[in-house]
Write a structure and sequence with these properties.
alpha/beta, binds cytidine-5'-diphosphate, Rossmann fold, three-stranded antiparallel sheet, 230 residues, 9 helices
Length: 230
């Protein structure tokens, strides 16, 4: 028995996906699955084990016994890697680039996608990532693709780093973000791409509250349509 819709939110780095997905999940009473955090956890594991990201064989071995879990604590997602809470560690700046590199390895994607499908198949979930609407759940009931100009997105990431006490040049943050988007868009398997039936939302000039409200209204009206037709 399905517990509700599967909602996909895709888009490039720092487009506001995770904040919006978290707020929407709270409003709808849905489970939020942050798929980026899962690739980040794989990257952290490789880093901890001293494995080179280009060493595909060792990366494949690392996947054999990896244990990644997402739990909700006080309305916030916590991510556990092999039993340890790594929610903060996976947000380190170097992990972003490592996650982008490791996520292009097919064995990593197949493993993470299998987990994501298991977590989401019953519905009542919001997943955010790069390939949710195109690859993980192509039949998701509602799909969004969030965008914003690279400068606006880099400004958001730069502010996040500042708040953590990390001083990085804005130009470097922008360059890293553009590089990561290029990697993510150009990989062979499940690249970052808008699904044909996704609703594109440019978040450059709207607040998180406005974008959450806009997506919420669309989801509610889809739910009403579904009720009427069933
Ligand atoms: O939060 P931010 O937008 O910076 O990144 P993220 O969503 O945490 O994702 C980190 C990296 O994981 C991305 O740059 C992608 O390379 C990868 N990723 C992916 O390949 N597929 C997904 N469904 C989610 C993330």
């Amino acid at each position: 028995m399905k517990k509700g819709f599967i909602i996909a939110i895709d888009g490039p780095a720092a487009s506001g996906k995770s904040t919006t997905a978290q707020l929407l999940a709270e409003k709808l009473g849905y489970v939020y699955i942050d798929t980026g955090a899962m690739y980040r956890a794989c990257a952290l594991k490789a880093k901890k084990m001293g494995i080179d990201i280009n060493d595909e064989e060792s990366i494949r071995e690392l996947l054999d016994d990896i244990d990644i879990r997402i739990e909700n604590h006080n309305s916030k997602n916590r991510i556990f890697l092999d039993g340890e809470d790594v929610s903060e560690d996976i947000r380190a700046d170097d992990i972003s680039a490592l996650a982008s590199a490791i996520s292009a390895i097919p064995a990593v994607r197949y493993k993470m996608v299998e987990l994501q499908r298991k977590m989401g198949e019953k519905g009542g979930v919001i997943l955010d990532g790069r390939d949710i609407g195109t690859f993980v759940f192509p039949t998701a009931e509602v799909k969004f693709f969030l965008t914003a100009s690279p400068e606006v997105r880099a400004k958001r990431r730069w502010l996040e780093l500042q708040q953590k006490g990390i001083n990085k040049d804005f130009s470097e943050v922008l360059a890293d973000l553009v590089k990561r988007d290029n990697n993510d868009s150009q990989r062979a398997l499940a690249p970052l791409k808008k699904a044909d039936d996704a609703i594109e939302v440019d978040t450059s000039n709207i607040t998180i509250e406005e974008q959450t409200d806009y997506l919420y209204q669309i989801i509610r009206s889809r739910m009403e349509e579904e009720c009427k037709s069933s």
